[in-house]
Please model this.
Amino acid sequence: MNAQKVIALALLGLLLGAFIVGATLVIRARWLTGGTEGEYARFIERGRILAEVQGNFKSAIAAFDSAIEVNSQRAQAYYLRGRAHSQLGDYKEALADCGEAIRLAPKDPEAYEMRALVYERKGDLENAIGDYDAAIRIARWPTLYYFRGSAHGKKGDLDKAIADYTEAIRIDSTYAAAYLRRAIIHQDKGELDAAIADYSTAIQIDRNYATAYRLRALVYEKKGELDKVLSDYTQAIRIDPNDPKVYRLRGIAYQRYGENVKADNDFAYAKHLEMSRQAPK
Model:
């Protein structure tokens, strides 16, 4: 073998050795980080679609399991899996997953928010509010104030609930749901004009907010403004013509007006809608 062949073989050996070392490092890095970002993202997206769009929480949990197998050091898959567990009533697993998410990402407000939602679903309002507090210390998102306001409302702390909804509105003045929730609290406190003002603002933001029309009608009813009651129920029906309870409510309003034929028609149609929902498909 001449010198040139020896040199060529030596170079080939060096190149092959470098390739093997490089491949080993890539494999080791992938093992240490738990996989590629693309794989992780695909499993997360699949899990979210299964849970949030299809309501298939068991399959969503399997998708999040796969994401965790790809990368066990990312918090998102844990708290999303925790939320899916909570939807199935498995609060022990849900809290464990959210706790692991917080351990991995103690500065991630979503991890605290998810655990708060689990506590709230479980009925543990004190711990839910504590986690909302922690999330708000990290990020002053309007949704966090909205959810904490809901927890305060469930506890009966109506003034704190109003304060949180007000802060959510201050941050995002187009937050129609926050106006609606604040209106409900005003209504519960007997502050009818304030309730009407908030329902009206929610409707100005979202002209197709059927719930706001329906609830505002109830306040007008308490104030004895029957023309506005009928108008709001009719608007709610226009937006959602398949809600039987609104037909029943409008039927009751027609009865108070003495328009019994219209009342009977609404009651009959409400019954028809209810029977249609119960019929086997």
The radius of gyration is 28 Å.
